[in-house]
Amino acid sequence: MLAIRKGSATKGVAMYEIDEPEPPEGWALVKVLKASICGTDVHIYQWNEWSQKRMKPPVTIGHEFVGEVLKVNKGSGRVHEGDIVSAESHVVCHVCRMCRRNMYHACENTKIIGVHMDGAFAEYIAIPEENLVKLPPSVPLEAGSVLEPFGNAVHTVQAVDVRGKRVVVTGVGPIGVMAIPVAKALGAVQIVATDLSDYRLKLASEVGADVVINVKEQDPVKVVQDLGGADVVLEMSGSEKALNQGLEMIIPGGEMAILGLPDNRVSLDLANDVVSKGITIKGITGRRLWETWDLGVSLVSSGKVDLKKVITHQFDFKDYEEAFSTMMSGNSGKVVLNISQ
Predict the structure, then answer these.
(1) What pLDDT band is residue 331 in, cutting at 50, 70 and 90?
(2) GO molecular-function annotation terms (predicted)?
């Protein structure tokens, strides 16, 4: 079969012909139909410090996908041959203290498909059956391919109370953009999006942002405070400056959920912007298993959230270099590879 792999500890990836995987007991073999490119895949392509610390090439990359179940090797009976599925990319241990507390998303021994084990940028993938999420026919294949990162957006919004609130999303890359219709569906009354990119701000408007702010042209703190302040801030950028701006604009007693990952340590005015204002801050990792998936699939299958506009580009599998270039340009939403028919 064909697979896009990190063949060596250098920049770039390549397409290889490798053997089709054989699923061990409790695992399934899935024919990958579509897969989307994540920021993690870009880090692996660029071979940055994060990927160098975690990967041991050669590894087939990719962890966001939709596919068809071909075989289950002594599974639970929850999924069957012919089912259309997406998948949770985090393979958990079930025995660490966090798993035993039902906090699987924070498993201390998490393995990630496409990072620690062969992933989904291939014609077939072997994956634990428990990680598969069966999709109803009302979920389009394109949407199914981005449900895993969509789950990050759902988890971030779900961690705070957005009902009747003014919500500011700082950083509208693909996951930040997806957080906007989720917040709207869960009851936010006004959504403000901030970013440096006019392209992404336009996309944010198209999916439901009521106010967009290019932080190169306007002071986001002043604009939001003139609106009455932020009840909730969803920090999706990983930017120290955006994080501090979010804390400044938030009202006393407000909430912040942080999904964005800074490259380095950050400096905050904890006394004035957090403690004195009584702000609640929550860090977000992964997706809650399986509450996030249940809500995410329900939002999409019911039509409450439409992910079509978030998926801005699709490429044939063999055009993966162009797909990566598009993703790295910053002028895209989610980029999808069409792998099999």
Answers:
(1) very high
(2) L-threonine 3-dehydrogenase activity; metal ion binding
Angstrom distances, CA of residue 321 to CA of 154, 195, 317, 326: 30, 26, 9, 9
- Measured at the CA of 183, the angle between CA 181 and CA 184, to 5 degrees, comes to 60
CB 214, CB 198: distance < 8 Å: yes
- The pLDDT tens digits of the residues spanning 73-121 come to 998 999 999 999 999 999 999 999 999 999 999 999 999 999 999 999 9
What positions carry a catalytic annotation? 40, 43
Pairing of strands 59-60, 2-6: antiparallel
pLDDT for 50: 86
Tell me, what's the pLDDT at 321?
98
Taking residues 246-253, what's their average pLDDT? 98
Spell out the domains of the chain, with CATH numbers in brackets.
Answer: 2-146+307-338 (3.90.180.10), 152-283 (3.40.50.720)
CA distance 68 to 83: 6
CA neighbor of 126 nearest in space, from 32, 12, 263: 32
- Sign (positive/negative) of CA torsion 41, 46, 52, 56? positive
Helix (H) or strand (E) holding 337: strand 334-338
Rg of the chain's alpha carbons, rounded to an integer? 20
Selection from 328, 307, 287 nearest residue 34 by Cα: 307
- Per residue in 21-69, pLDDT (tens digit) is 999 999 999 999 999 999 999 999 999 988 999 999 999 999 999 999 9
The CA distance from 311 to 176, in Å, is 13
CB atoms near residue 311 (< 10 Å): 20
Residue 123: strand, helix, or coil: coil
- The b-or-e profile of 32-42 (16+ CB within 10 A means b, else e) is bbbbbbbebbe
Look at residues 115, 110, 259 and name the one whose alpha carbon lies nearest to residue 173. Answer: 259
pTM over 0.85: yes
Give the model's pLDDT for residue 263.
83
- Cβ(138)–Cβ(78) below 8 Å: no
